[in-house]
Design a protein that fits this description.
There is one protein chain. The protein is mostly helical. Helices cover 95% and strands 0% of the residues. The protein is built from two helices and no strands. It has helices at residues 2-108, 116-196. Helix 1 (2-108) packs antiparallel against helix 2 (116-196). The longest helix is centred in the N-terminal third of the chain and has 107 residues, at 2-108. The protein is rod-shaped. The mean pLDDT is 84.
């Protein structure tokens, strides 16, 4: 009976050993599958993150472009206003000169110096000259403030442009990094295929 028991155990033993090796192979395959899934999930996470960064970069570029356009349009309006003010100042200077000439003629006209109407005309002319001088001074002040505004807007445009260029460089660097990473992945896959062959 003992011999039969030993023979039975020897016959059944290969089945247990085979079952154990199958279990080990299944565990190993499960681990490999887990590893592949985690690698794939990590790759997808990196891709999502890079896509989000690219979207942020695009939106920042659009904002920067809009900012540059707004600053340039403000600058153009301010320059147009300055030209109008310069023209206005020239006209007011000419007007002032004619009124000063009229006043000088009235004061030099010695025939009517004693006439009260003539004195009234001189006073009226002096008032007109004063008003013209005030208008001219006001226009010159507006020109000064407009010139300062234009200088500030030029600085704003330059700042916006440099910010835009900086973002463009950063985007280009990220693009190169992504291409490099992609090339490395392809190289790694190629090496893995060669190793399996």
């Amino acid at each position: 009976m003992r011999t039969r028991l030993i023979i039975m155990i020897l016959l059944i033993l290969p089945f247990f050993a085979n079952a154990q090796s199958n279990f080990n192979m299944q565990m190993q395959q499960a681990r490999q599958m887990n590893q592949q899934m985690s690698n794939q999930n990590a790759q997808w996470a990196r891709e999502r993150q890079m896509n989000m960064q690219q979207q942020q970069m695009r939106s920042m570029m659009m904002q920067s472009q809009t900012q540059v356009q707004k600053a340039e349009s403000k600058l153009a309006k301010a320059e147009k206003k300055l030209k109008k003010l310069d023209k206005k100042a020239t006209e007011r200077e000419a007007d002032l000169k004619t009124k000063q000439d009229e006043l000088a003629n009235l004061q030099n006209n010695s025939e009517n110096n004693n006439n009260t109407d003539h004195q009234k005309d001189i006073e009226k002319s002096k008032k007109q000259v004063t008003k013209s001088e005030e208008k001219l001074n006001k226009t010159k002040t507006e020109i000064e403030s407009s010139s300062k505004k234009i200088d500030n807007l030029k600085k704003e445009v330059e700042t916006a442009k440099s910010k835009k260029e900086e973002l463009a460089k950063k985007e280009e660097e990220e693009k190169k990094a992504k291409e490099k990473e992609k090339a490395e992945k392809e190289e790694k896959k190629k090496l893995e295929k060669e190793a399996k062959s």
